[in-house]
Design brief:
This protein is an all-alpha fold. 76% of the residues lie in helices and 2% in strands. α1 (8-24) packs parallel to α3 (95-169). The longest helix has 75 residues, at 95-169.
């Protein structure tokens, strides 16, 4: 079975741990469940996670391919055994017993190889599912935090828009509202001294 220097699933889990640490260590916003997260660091971790997912899937595919190779080798070995047994049977008068034993042995080898291949496929599928489930949970947490941050910003923007509309709708001379201007009882140009 082929092995690689490092496991892509472990890389993915390490990246998710770093993302968790980044979010957990982020500075909280006052009076809010939101936090300020360094966007560049978070996006870098997400990009690394995206890169690790195909590696994890490739690793799972390698495991499945290895299982197929084990099955093929088992079949080839069983065919060789059957051929040798048939040759021996032809050479010997009591060939039926030899062929039967060889076929039994071949059936045993094929059954063992198929069982091993099934176990390897199941293990690869289980491993891939666990990696993807962990990623799904982490992405869900990130999405929840992004959603909460956007809701806080939407509230601020709504308040700012309402305040701006209110300021534009207030008449400049309305009593008790807005900026008061000096009231002139006479036209200032007419009241200027004549020379």
């Amino acid at each position: 079975m082929t092995t690689t220097g490092h496991d892509a699933g472990d890389d993915l889990l390490r990246i998710l741990d770093e993302l968790d640490t980044l979010i957990a260590g982020a500075r909280s916003m006052p009076m809010s469940a939101s936090a300020i997260v360094n966007r560049e660091e978070a996006l870098d971790l997400i990009d690394r996670a995206r890169s690790a997912v195909p590696s994890a899937v490739r690793r799972a595919e390698e495991i499945v391919a290895d299982a197929g190779a084990v099955l093929d080798r088992g079949r080839e070995e069983s065919e060789r055994i059957v051929m040798r047994a048939q040759e021996e049977a032809e050479r010997l008068v009591a060939g039926e017993t030899v062929v039967r034993l060889a076929n039994d042995r071949a059936d045993t080898i094929i059954a063992a190889a198929e069982e091993r291949a099934t176990a390897l496929r199941h293990g690869a599928d289980d491993y891939s599912d666990r990696c993807l489930a962990g990623l799904e949970i982490e992405l869900g947490r990130i999405a929840d935090q992004v959603r909460a941050g956007r809701e806080v910003l939407a509230g601020r923007l709504t308040q700012a828009d309402a305040a701006q509309r209110w300021a534009q709708s207030v008449e400049p001379g309305a009593e008790g509202i807005g900026r008061r201007r000096a009231g002139w009882s006479v036209d200032p140009a007419a009241a200027a001294p004549q020379h």
